[in-house]
Give the backbone structure.
Amino acid sequence: QTMRLYFAVDSDARVIRGLIALVLSVFNGRTPQDISRFDIDDWFSKLDLYNHLSPSRGNGLRAIVEEIRSLAHRFE
């Protein structure tokens, strides 16, 4: 049986909550290997996401992604 990971993340800020929803739409229900392999920076580029975020929000988004990848790595 393949292990699939699900994450619950929240924020008081609506914009961050929306960004988290985007990230979780990609990662929830995936295997740890899928999470490690997925090129989320390419996906963000296709969405032109970073051009619409302040540097601090972009860094926060990257930190969320890295934390999810770190957690997933523990289950590989």
